[in-house]
């Protein structure tokens, strides 16, 4: 997956949060300085149209009336223009927000996929966090997976299906390499389940040579950080080819 470029997502190069802030501040502002133009215009109209009125009071009165009329007209006209421009602006910003959210989602997925392709990503996890990371990986490569949270599940942490194919994944809770005792426990669990299910043991640390030999003899797939990073890159080699979703 190539790194997403912000320039390919809309026109604005700002975050969705910043765009939302711009949407929220779309308000109508009527500048008082516009009135300074309306009232002189009103007095000019009074002078032009009512030049026959001699008393100054009438000139001032009608100047104020015309100035007020011009001000109200200007206010209404300005508001109509604002509504039109605000609607266009909001439509544009909402469209840009969709682009920004798509970019943020794509860049987040790119970062995760880039990290998953590195063995170090898998080594930093343990326990439930590692289990969740393995669960997410198998879901991304196409398996319909579910986590087993109930007690008494026989040690199976993740179950998955792809058509008729089924997998059972065990993530041993250990701070050391998975040894032969863990493999024997896994084989006991395997015998209690469907013999056709693919059994997988995933570890963020790795496996001892004895456990690897026993797993190979009993058709158990082992996944260490290097194997998991290969799966994240879409590489399904040797026994891991059975994990590929077609």
Describe, in plain words, how this protein is organized in 3D:
The protein has 246 residues and is α/β, with parallel strands linked by helices. The protein folds into two domains: 6-116, no CATH class; 121-243, Trna Endonuclease, Chain: A, domain 1, CATH 3.40.1350.10. Helices cover 55% and strands 10% of the residues. It contains eight helices and five strands. The chain has helices at 16-24, 33-49, 56-116, 119-123, 127-140, 180-191, 209-217, 225-232; strands at residues 144-147, 158-162, 165-170, 198-202, 220-223. Strands 1-2-3-4-5 form a five-stranded mixed beta sheet, with helices on both faces. Helix 1 (16-24) packs antiparallel against helix 3, helix 2 runs antiparallel to helix 3 (56-116) and helix 6 (180-191) runs parallel beside helix 7. The longest helix has 61 residues, at 56-116. The two termini are 19 Å apart.
Distance between the termini: 19 Å
- Give the ordered list of helices and strands: HHHHHEEEHEHEH
Class inferred from helices and paired strands: alpha/beta
The CATH architecture classification of the largest domain is 3-Layer(aba) Sandwich
Q: How many helices in DSSP terms?
A: 8
Q: Major sheet, described briefly? A: 5 strands, mixed
The top-level CATH class of the largest domain is Alpha Beta
Helix content: 40-55%
Task: Give the percentage of residues in beta strands.
Answer: 5-15%
The overall pLDDT average reads: 82
| Number of separate strands | 5
CATH third-tier fold name of the largest domain: Trna Endonuclease, Chain: A, domain 1
Stretches where pLDDT is under 50 for at least 5 consecutive residues are none
């Amino acid at each position: 997956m190539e790194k997403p470029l912000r320039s390919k997502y809309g026109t604005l190069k700002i975050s969705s949060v910043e765009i939302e802030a711009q949407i929220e501040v779309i308000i109508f502002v009527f500048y008082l300085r516009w009135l300074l133009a309306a009232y002189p215009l009103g007095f000019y109209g009074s002078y032009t149209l009512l030049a026959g009125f001699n008393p100054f009071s009438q000139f001032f009165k009608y100047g104020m009336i015309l100035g007020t009329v011009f001000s109200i007209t200007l206010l209404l006209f300005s508001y109509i223009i604002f509504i039109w421009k605000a609607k266009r602006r909001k439509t544009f910003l909402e469209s840009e927000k969709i682009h920004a959210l798509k970019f943020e989602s794509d860049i987040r997925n790119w970062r995760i996929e880039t990290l998953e392709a590195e063995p170090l990503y898998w080594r930093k996890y343990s326990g439930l966090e590692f289990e969740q990371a393995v669960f997410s990986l198998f879901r991304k490569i196409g398996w319909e997976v579910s986590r087993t949270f109930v007690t008494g599940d026989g040690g199976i942490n993740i179950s998955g299906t792809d058509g008729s194919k089924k997998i059972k994944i065990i993530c041993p809770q250990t701070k050391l390499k998975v040894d032969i005792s863990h493999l024997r426990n896994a084989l006991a669990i395997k015998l209690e389940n469907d013999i056709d299910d693919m059994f997988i043991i995933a570890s963020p640390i790795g496996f001892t040579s004895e456990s690897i030999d026993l797993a190979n003899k009993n058709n158990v797939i082992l996944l260490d950080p290097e194997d998991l990073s290969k799966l994240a890159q879409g590489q399904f080699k040797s026994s891991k080819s059975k994990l590929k979703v077609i």
